[in-house]
Amino acid sequence: MENFKKIKVILHRGSNQIGGVCTEIATANTRIFVDFGSPLEGEGDQSRLDIDGLTFGAVGCDGVFLTHYHGDHVGEIPRIMSSIPVYMESTARKILEVQQEHKKSLGQIVWATGVKELIGGEPVIVKDLNVTPIKSDHSACNSLMYLVEGCGKRILITGDYRLHGYYAEELVKTFKNLGKLDLMITEGTTITRDSCYSHDEKWVEQEFAKINKKYKYVFLLTSSSNIGRIAAFSRTIPEGKYMLVDQYQEKLIKIYDADQVERLQSCKVLHTGNNLIKKAEKLGFGMAVRANDHFQRIVKNFFEKYPEKTCLVYSMWSGYKDCPSIKKMLALCPDEENVKIRHASGHVTKEDLEQVIETIKPAKLIIHHTAADKRNIGKLILPGDTELVCAEDGRLIAL
Length: 399
Ligand SMILES: [Zn+2]
Known about the structure:
The chain is of the alpha/beta class. The protein has two domains: 8-194 and 347-398, Metallo-beta-lactamase, Chain A; 199-341, Metallo-hydrolase/oxidoreductase (Rossmann fold, 3-Layer(aba) Sandwich), CATH 3.40.50. It has eleven helices and 20 strands. Helix 2 packs antiparallel against helix 6 and helix 4 crosses helix 5. The structure holds zinc ion (ZN).
């Protein structure tokens, strides 16, 4: 009878690797999951994750809640049995749908159309669990955290987040007002990363402004899904110059802008399809590019014609520099001087993570989405009353 009132948590994957996360929260008669991601290439366990009641067998799941649209959080969703409802923030879902349509040519199944939409702050009752989506701040826009309440217990699962984005102040306020938590499950991506200092998004935007002023032709190499970053870049294009993207990127930006406060919206973004490149060559431009053949040809052309006036801004995690297509793109720049690295991480720094835990003071703490081992996690400065629970993939934790 004792167990009946308990809430259980199982980290199916992600307890000791970055990405590929999938977390179950359940009571005796309710079972939900938060995220169902694919492992990042070369990072941790790459094997296929099958879960009874979720991907095979009799349906035994009441809902899957997604924190954001990055593949390491949503990549395995197409394998979920079709009668199980999947929830996601409304703008994030629209973005994911456009991304999937774009990838359709590669044979990927488009599944986001069936995903139910959530609004930050509006709770969903799933039998005896109350799930409240909370607006977060990450390099994927409109990301959510979830507060899950049931059996008299309160659990926060953060997804990916940071305190150095544009919504840092709001997020700090959210943490202060959360109230007592029985368990906090947080990401810990940066615990094993060397640099403890992270630039913030405002710094990146200021740097973009300087670069766009100095060079006539500026290419921004970043992820097409980091739409807030591309919007920031567009805001720094000087008067008289063009801001160019391709049609796919334009679609994503339109969805982003429709649900964004004015100061963070994009500015005068045009797509390159209308022969604009000729006009823009005269007046100068900033252009968001990806490392594909189409953009490589454009970048190559401008570096060859205008080596002094052209600049490529690398605005992604440094680890991606080893990807063959990115390497190729960077190799097009004739001079190191014309490649600028301007980036802010999507993940909370170790110091901010300690600060967040100190603010919340959860009774129990699990750190997942991390490559850190027990020794590294043990070095974190934690509040005296917080019990650090060392989770393992597949192990049941009862509250
Ligand atoms: Zn992410």
